[in-house]
Amino acid sequence: MSASLSFLSLIFLFSAFSLHGNTPDSLDANESAPRNEIIRVIQPGVFDIQSQDFLIRMRAWGVEFPKRGQPGYEAALAFTEKKLISTVPRISIKREFDDLNLKVVDIELLDQKVNFSKEAILLGIGWHNEKETGRFGPYLMAQLKAKRLKTGIWSTGFAYSSAMGSVSPQPKLPTLYDRRQGFIPSLSFWVTSFGKIHRPGCSFYERGRGTLTSKPTGTDCRICGGRYPKK
Known about the structure:
Elements lengths: L1 H19 L3 H8 L5 E7 L2 E5 L4 E6 L2 E2 L8 H12 L5 E6 L7 E6 L7 H7 L4 E2 L1 H4 L3 H13 L10 H5 L24 E4 L3 E3 L11 E4 L5 E2 L11
Parallel strand pairs: 3-6, 9-11
Antiparallel strand pairs: 1-2, 2-3, 4-7, 5-6, 8-9, 8-10
Helix pairs in contact: 4-6
């Protein structure tokens, strides 16, 4: 009899221990676990995603958008913000880092049938980057449809490819000596709100929030070199 009681006591203790692991506190802890959420849009197709330990900057694969000052830029920015901010999409990495040190990814929104890049191309918000995708069929077809319907950027008649050229335009740097003025102008660096230093010619120069200064302090950009130009 005493042996039976001891056995039943063990079963009761084990059951109580198991139930303790499923208390509301433990469920709340699971629900509050960090998610890979998009928290900020930098420019059309470029965004910051917050993981558990890192803030990672990414770019949408296979699509290009108008640059600042070109027709369609504001629409592309608004489209990116509406589609991505505060979402937790399924991300597939296509390239670890591009020339601008951005992770290139395919973005699949969980409540959408069409992924982000294809929808942007289909609506004429951006155009297919054939060189990057290797003439990916679904994106080719989406662009043909957008062109045929003259949707979005295809209604403006603006030659985006001609305006951009094969390389991004680089700002002209000041000469070291101005004979007319007789002085050496100082070089203005762009220091972001995060303390990252960019020099003229960098793709991040005067991007986002920051200040121009000739005496910057902070961390030098890995792309342009910051205070020390890369050779």
